[in-house]
Amino acid sequence: MQGIGSSQPVNGVSINCYDRLLRFKPVPLPGGIGGSFSMTELEGELAESWQLAADGMSCTFKLRPDATFHSGRGVTAKDVKWSLDRAVSIGGFATTQMNAGSLEKSEQFVVVDEKTFRIDFARKDKMTLPDLAVTIPFVFDSELAIKNAGDDPWAKEYLKNNIAGSGAFKVESWKPGTETIYTRFDGWKGGKLPEMRRIITRDIASPSTRRALIERGDADMSYGLPPKDFKDLLEAGKVRVVGVPVPNAIWYLALNCAVGPFTNVKLRQAVAYAMPYEKIMQAALFGRGIPMWGGPATSQTTVWPQKFPYKTDIAKAQALMKESGVAPFKTQLIFDAGSGTIAEPLCVLVQESLAPLGIDVEIQKVTGANFRGEISKKTLPMVVNRFGGWLDWADYFFYWKYHGRNSIFNIPSYQNPAMDKLIDTARFSGDPAEYERNVKAFVDMAITDVPFIPIAQPLHDVAMTQNIGGYQYWPSREPDFRYITKSL
Fold this sequence. Notes:
Dipeptide-binding Protein, domain 3, alpha+beta, Dipeptide-binding Protein, domain 1, four-stranded antiparallel beta sheet, 32% helix, eight-stranded mixed beta sheet
């Protein structure tokens, strides 16, 4: 269940079955409909207390003295070190996410004594402590993992199929792709003991079936319905719908900056003015999002996402197309089949909107299992996708999406050393004025170069029966059963 990558099911297991040193502080959503979180306020989970060094270059954590693993063994600083060593060494998304908070080498993680642990910082980075609160740096029962590891130093195969945690829930049974049953761990010390003693989660592929189950009351919560279903459920009023704007996230159209016709910036700007934004919001998202078009000409804030100045203006798009010197052409627009309820109608609308520019768009659906492999090639001309960064800073999003040396998430293969310098300077700046200057500058550069065309900030929607309370939203967007309540 715990591999080296990140997926929604893995994130859900991480939240409920494992502890981290720290967690984000929950904050109430308006109207008492649940909770979100504060990115800059942290609470202890395995850490009873923590103290930054006077020079700001290390942090020492005192572990809860009574924290125990599901095995019954006490949690020690050695377990924390093994777990964080694993996260920075194993590769894949786990290591990349740790690096994003300047957690890079096992030498940074120091066992002081059995219940005292220290992290030595690679540099001063505002993201280091918040990065300890995301789902990746959870703490394993290292003795149990090593005992079952064989010749695998990080017990990858064993931990894919077994829980070795100290979290509020244990896994009673797991049928991959079908059902997971959680039972409460009554020895949990990381917070208030959950009210729910047993949770059954079922993977149901059909959205219509999921909707029917929640409407009949045969399910208590439902995730991942199409936006139209959430809109209908909200308007009907029989069940509650909680929609939280996903921090640091957008739906976008990516245009390849490395190969093909979209290397021409005027052409990319033409596409940005041709986009049918309002039609997309109504016909693909059904209003379940925040518009990211029609903003000021230049960046006015460090908040991300923020509105770009583009809006639907076919005459302006056609003029820019003419300025580009690019002749009419055929191209492909790719989307992930797994997000097809939104992405497919969105692509059809884009296809229709680009025809007046002489751009003949062929839409290609790629199955979820192959989609990431396809975008990693950096050769696709146009891609519709959604991305959200877990740490809610503009420079964090741009590090993932716009930085020239970064990973798979820079889908357009956008390369701009000036952009890279602005992102790097902002990430490690301790001067608020300098930070603001750099963020506004790299957003302005993104507006001009437009490798990504922002469309909307998505809402994370959840449907719940009226007797369910305690909904808690986290960056990973998975249900946290530790807070859920159910009245009779």
